[in-house]
Design brief:
CATH architecture of the largest domain in chain B: 3-Layer(aba) Sandwich
CATH topology of the largest domain in chain A: Rhopdopsin 7-helix transmembrane proteins
Strand content of chain B: 5-15%
CATH topology of the largest domain in chain B: Rossmann fold
Largest sheet of chain B: 5 strands, parallel
Shape of chain A: elongated
Number of strands of chain A: 14
Distance between the termini of chain B: 22 Å
Strand content of chain A: 15-25%
Largest sheet of chain A: 5 strands, antiparallel
Order of helices and strands of chain B: EHEHEHEHEHHHHH
Strand order of the largest sheet of chain B: 2-1-3-4-5
Oligomer: heterodimer
CATH architecture of the largest domain in chain A: Up-down Bundle
CATH class of the largest domain in chain B: Alpha Beta
Shape of chain B: elongated
Helix content of chain A: 55-70%
Helix content of chain B: 55-70%
Number of domains of chain A: 4
Number of strands of chain B: 5
Radius of gyration of chain A: 45 Å
Structural class of chain A: alpha+beta
Number of helices of chain B: 9
Chain lengths: 602, 207
């Protein structure tokens, strides 16, 4: 064996070893196609090396031609794998160039097998043995060229163009890794292809006496690539150590914070859960075996929503926050954030028991609603006298009309026109009394908050109608200035009425001591924030230091009253996404304003 | 003297209450006049016409109590029946002190209201009668000279002619002449009648 033989055998063996190594890696990580392509490339290079060895040792022209012919098959494979590798691993190179390279290469193989003795030679007439120093010898062919030979060169040129383009793309990406890869791989590839090209051209036209060195050139490229792949593999090992650490840490923090961690692999339908998650979902022994089993743990009312959310994040990626109940006794509320990795078909979840928080929140809301209701009832209680008057007026009219009608009818010649008119008035007044009671009942009702589109002017008008008698009896003159067209806003009519009743009552109380000129100004207007309502009085005003204090609970300037009215008003307005504040009037006349955003909601 | 048809006035800011009252009063045979505000009432009010006033207590602007005060200040004897939707005791007391004849809480039954109207008209009639008598007395006394008035005062004090003459520094005969003139001018037939006349003329018109 000459040193040339040893070199080529070693080359083939190392190439094959590298290939097998990557095949092994690919088998455990099917998604990383680069390893498979690398295996194909290095495997093919090993085969090319074998054929080259055969060519060197060819005894006859026919043997040489046969070996060269078959060498083109693995060579085509190596080229295609290389193109695939560049595209899949570096995500560079134009698709159409890649396709062109592969198609031309495939055509070359077909022509290689069908025309002439191989794609290079139509006929090899003789072979000449060249002997190098050290006793190594190899065969050099001579004969007529295959006319399709140029197509093979076109293929090489296309490959070169593809690689140059890919390298430029990598370079332009700009980050350090991409630039290094551009140099290492792109540059190396280009260099080697140039070598092969020059060698081929030299051999056929310049009468260079060298063995074919396609396999060593390709191997050089493969090694360059292998360096990158190997670095990645090393990084993966480091990452796996880091991952173990971080997994340990996350488990520790999950235990401390009582967080339930779980994940689901949609491809294998496998669940992983930490112990807290198993406890939370009521599966103490093992995680669920399927998504169905997992969903069974969720309350039937929430199951559909959770299932849909998982499906949605799995198809679109991203994350979603869910709140649902689990079928435990007693029912537990769980808050969960799920996050999906679409490419790995995995869903991860962090869950937390929020039953206590929910209960406290609900109790708080209930208390607030009760307080709001009580404050409303209290406000109406202060209005009781006036409200009785509002009902007594129509009742008085009804009674007078009815008794007048009786008297008219008792006359020998009844005035039927008068009777008819009286009855019509009775009907009208009865409706009026009914409407007052209806409004009162609505205000006193302890109902759910209902947000509906409403015109604030309607609410203002209705409240002033309800309080008309109170305002009259207190000698208050009301001036209204309502913006003609206001955008509808979303709110609870009753609660907003409550705010207005409170503000108007406060204004009246503030004017209690004024002997004359008790004036109430109610205005609505559109502002950039939404709709503003202002209630101005001509009373004693509010000192600047108290402008904010009056909204605190149990702060009151009245002898009777809890001092909850304004505090509740502010809570209501805030719940509508608006603001309530008091304006100026240090010595005389205060104005309270509130703004509600258009389309406000709680 | 003719007996004029009494007019029942009603003031209320609520038009439907006003319509009901108007109809009820008409069905009971009265002549109602209704007004939606104090101003409208004063614009048409004739204090000489016999009648009464049904008045709503709570009204915007000039309320019932202020209207009543204005009536009293103008010397009117028109009796007031108050109606209220929210009768509280202090207001009632104030209204009654100010001379209201009745105070009712809405809704009020027709019998009660019409009885009150009847009482009020009767009272108005009496007041107007009294007023006429007084006016007559005042007119009769108005013809006396200053000297005769002095003699008249002493007569009312129960002094005899002699005593009067002494008090005025004159003779009894002169006093007798003055006395005859007084009896003639006041058309009184006796001293007792003269005393009654003086009493009537002094009274303020209130019962």
């Amino acid at each position: 064996m000459s040193w040339l033989d040893v070199a080529w055998v070693a080359l083939a063996a190392s190439s094959a070893t590298l290939g097998l190594l990557n095949l092994y890696i690919w088998l455990s990580r099917r998604s990383e196609l680069a390893h498979l392509l690398f295996f194909a490339m290095t495997g093919a290079i090993a085969a090319v090396a074998a054929f080259e060895l055969d060519m060197m040792h060819a005894a006859t022209a026919a043997q040489y031609a046969e070996a060269l012919r078959w060498a083109h098959v693995p060579l085509a494979l190596a080229v295609m794998a290389m193109v695939g590798f560049v595209r899949s691993y570096f995500r560079a190179g134009r698709l159409w160039l890649a396709m062109a390279v592969c198609i031309v290469r495939a055509v070359v193989v077909v022509l290689d097998l069908t025309t002439g003795e191989n794609i290079n030679f139509a006929h090899i007439a003789t072979i000449e043995r060249v002997v190098l120093p050290g006793g190594a010898g190899f065969a050099v062919p001579a004969g007529t060229l295959n006319p399709w030979w140029t197509l093979a060169q076109l293929g090489n040129a296309l490959l070169l163009a593809f690689l140059v383009d890919a390298s430029i793309t990598l370079w332009r990406r700009g980050d350090a890794v991409a630039r290094r890869r551009s140099w290492l791989v792109g540059g190396g590839l280009v260099f080697c292809v140039l070598c092969v090209l020059a060698l081929a051209l030299g051999t056929f036209f310049g009468g260079l006496r060298l063995p074919t060195v396609v396999a060593p050139s390709f191997l050089a490229v493969a090694l360059a690539m292998g360096t990158e792949l190997g670095a990645d593999t090393l990084r993966a090992a480091q990452l796996s150590r880091d991952l173990r650490d971080s997994k340990h840490l996350s488990e520790l923090s999950a235990q401390v914070a009582q967080l339930a961690l779980w994940s689901w692999d949609a491809a294998t339908s496998q669940f992983w859960m930490n112990s807290i998650a198993r406890g939370l979902f009521g599966l103490p022994d093992q995680p669920p075996r399927s998504l169905g089993e997992f969903l069974e743990r969720i309350d039937v009312e929430d199951r559909g929503g959770v299932s849909a959310a998982i499906a949605a994040t799995l198809s679109r990626g991203g994350s979603a926050d869910l709140e649902f109940r689990v079928t435990q006794s007693p029912t537990r509320w769980i808050a969960t954030r799920i996050e999906a990795e679409v490419q790995y078909a995995r869903v991860r979840g962090i869950s937390m028991d929020i039953s206590d928080r929910r209960r406290v929140t609900r109790e708080l809301m209930q208390k607030r609603e009760e307080l709001t209701h009580l404050s409303r009832v209290a406000a109406l209680g202060e209005l009781a006298g006036s409200l009785a008057h509002e009902i007594n007026q129509p009742l008085m009219a009804i009674l007078s009309n009815a008794q007048a009608a009786q008297r008219f009818m008792a006359a020998p010649d009844p005035a039927l026109d008068d009777v008819r008119a009286a009855i019509a008035d009775i009907v009208e007044d009865d409706r009026r009394a009914g409407a007052v009671i209806q409004r009162l009942r609505a205000m006193l009702r302890k109902g759910e908050i209902q947000h509906a589109p409403l015109d604030i002017n309607d609410v203002v008008t209705e409240v002033l109608r309800l309080m008309r008698s109170e305002l009259t009896s207190r000698g208050v003159v009301v001036g209204t200035e309502l913006a003609p067209v206001l955008a509808p806003l979303l709110g609870d009519r009753i609660q907003l009425q409550q705010v207005l009743v409170n503000l108007v009552m406060n204004a009246c109380d503030a004017m209690q001591d004024s002997t004359d000129n008790r004036r109430l100004d109610v205005r609505t207007r559109a502002t950039h924030e939404g709709v503003e309502v202002s209630i101005g009085d001509s009373g004693r005003g509010i000192p600047a230091t108290d402008l904010e204090r009056i909204f605190e609970p149990f702060v009151t300037g009245k002898e009777h009253g809890l001092g909850l009215g304004l505090s509740v008003c502010r809570t209501i307005v805030n719940a509508h996404g608006g603001r309530l504040w008091a304006d100026g009037g240090a010595t005389a006349g205060a104005t309270l304003r509130f703004v509600l955003p258009q389309g406000a909601r709680a | 003297m003719s007996t004029p048809q009494p007019v029942v006035h009603a003031v209320d800011d609520d038009p439907s209450v006003l319509r009901g009252l108007e109809r009820l009063l008409r069905s009971a045979g009265y002549t109602p006049r209704v007004y939606s505000s104090a101003e409208a009432f004063f614009a048409e009010h004739d204090p000489e016409v016999l009648g009464c006033l049904i008045l709503d207590l709570a009204m915007p602007g000039c309320d019932g109590m202020q209207l009543q005060q204005r009536l009293v200040d103008s010397g009117s004897v028109l009796p007031v029946i108050f109606l209220t939707g929210r009768g509280d005791v202090p207001t009632t007391v104030r209204a009654m002190k100010n001379g209201a004849v009745d105070f009712h809480t809405k809704p009020v039954d027709d019998h009660e209201l019409l009885a009150a109207v009847e009482r009020a008209i009767e009272r108005c009639r009496q007041d107007q009668q009294q007023r006429r008598v007084r006016a007559d007395c005042v007119a009769r006394l108005a013809g006396l000279t200053a000297r005769e008035r002095e003699v008249f005062q002493h007569l009312l004090a129960g002094m005899r002619n002699k005593q009067i003459a002494a008090a005025l520094g004159t003779v009894e005969k002169t006093v007798k002449v003055h006395r005859a003139r007084i009896m003639e001018k006041t058309r009184a037939s006796s001293l007792a009648e003269l005393v009654q006349l003086a009493e009537r003329a002094k009274s303020t018109g209130k019962a």
